Amino acid sequence: ELRAHHAAEGPWRTSPSRASSPAESEARVTLRRTDVQFSIRGIVDGSIASGSFWAHSELVRKFSPVLRTELEAAERGAVEARLRAQAAAAARARRRLPPQEARGPEDVSNMSLHLEVKAAPLLFEKVINWMYGLPLEMRARQLSRWPHNGAELLSLAQRLGYVPLERALKRLLCEAAARGGTELSWALLHVSHAYGLQPELELCAAEIARTGGVLPSQELLAVLPLGALSALLRSDAWVVDEEAEILEVVERWLKEKGELEAEEEEE
């Protein structure tokens, strides 16, 4: 049974499974081909940031159906453009030279394709690193910011349809909620509700309930949605002497909500 004073700082580490990362021998071969270039634009600390990343098309196709679709569309467009250019060149040549044997489209496997992804560069770098089998580490202070920054990495994994990374982040969330202490469990309760992660929501609620409802910081409690609070109150894991202790959680939540709304009205 974990209590708030037993909080672990992490890092919580998650690595791609062998099935979802390229073998070393394959990587040595494919690393010679850098054929997809991603142009990244996103917001970092309130300002626009940009960057470029190279990746291998076979990895992109394997891990992200969203990027695979964009990549295939870009490749088709490139082939069509080259065919049009070749047809125009052939027409010019026919006017000056004897007919020549028609040529097919050039190989596009090593072509540079620019795909713009609207995400912070450092965030997208984590996704690319995961594709290449590098582990991901998250510390408690990073996870505790998820309710405020929209759990950006989880959100990006979902938008890209990158299921292995999404699953790994969910497992990491559960491990952190179980070991990271009450404050982190409250933060991840918020995230689980926002993303509709029902098993993770119930786990976070149970971890908080086992502490008897030790309250989080004022800032975190004030932004907690009603649905997340309801999931906590429904948990079967409560360890309290009286029901009044559970009601105290609701009273504090109402108080913090009211003060936050009053401050927003004044602004």
TrEMBL record:
- InterPro entries per the record? SKP1/BTB/POZ_sf
Where in this protein does the record put region Disordered?
1-28
Sequence ranges of Low complexity compositional bias: 15-24
Superkingdom in the source lineage: Eukaryota
The entry's protein name is: BTB domain-containing protein
